[in-house]
Amino acid sequence: MFSEYSKIVKDGLWLNNQAFVALLGLCPLLAVSNTIINGLGLGLATTMTLVVSNTVVSLIRNFVPDEIRLPVFVLVIASVVTMIELAMNAWFFGLYKILGIFIPLIVTNCSIIGRAEAYASKQRADKAFLDGLSMGLGFTFALVTLGSLREIIGSGTLFAKAELMFGEAAKTWQIDVITDYSGMLLAILPPGAFIGLGLLIALKNIIDTKVEQRKPAHIQIPIQAAQEQ
Known about the structure:
Blueprint: H1 2-15, H2 26-32, H3 36-60, H4 69-91, H5 93-99, H6 110-118, H7 125-155, E1 157-158, H8 163-166, E2 175-176, H9 185-188, H10 190-228
Antiparallel strand pairs: 1-2
């Protein structure tokens, strides 16, 4: 049982990361990831949508006829996104204005409807919940990582405008990574997002290759020791 849950978490966070591997949800990923705070805000909204929609879809899967399955799933997702949008409008208005259309567009995110159809509709609620949480956090990780890279290169800062999410006390959280830096406009513009994402995907592939190369060495050592004995 633990191995099943562990696999779900690994798939969501790394092995089947929706941004770095499946390459889904790239429109919001590239559009709003110019700062950490923007990426974190959209990532958490997407994670909440995945968690709630996956859980609800799993709970109702046996009561929904196959003929109307997808429309019902979309309706569930749209309802969840609407609640999240209203909550952000009420409590995080500044961040809500910056993210703009990309909050309601979560409804059309392929990764969300994909997880609802491919996984949540076939699994128990606990597994669907964990899958949604893992996939959401994996997507948030991609947003925050890309946002960090673009913010540092583009503006030389980290956690700029953190007060939009964490309140007035967070105004002092900004870190000037590069002092007296005039910035690089390319990193903030859409082409910089494509370049940054490509570099991060390349880095992930290098890490995965290194890990795979090390696996045979660990397996062969005990085999050789047993043969010598």
